[in-house]
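Now for a typical sample entry:
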Amino acid sequence: MIQLFREISTFLFGTRCYAIIIGERGSDRYDIASQIHFTKASAEAHRRRIEETRTYVYITTITFRWRRR
């Protein structure tokens, strides 16, 4: 029953996705990172990798729904 509800909600509302907004250090330019993540854990791992770089600074993570059908 839960799987049926999950499939119906995915069909109606789409899949939840995460995108990371980054900024260039020393600049006022902001971009979306090059990857779209389907799990929060994957997005958090990418955020930690971005924080280790000297070129980009992490701004925020946005959530959106995507209907791929």
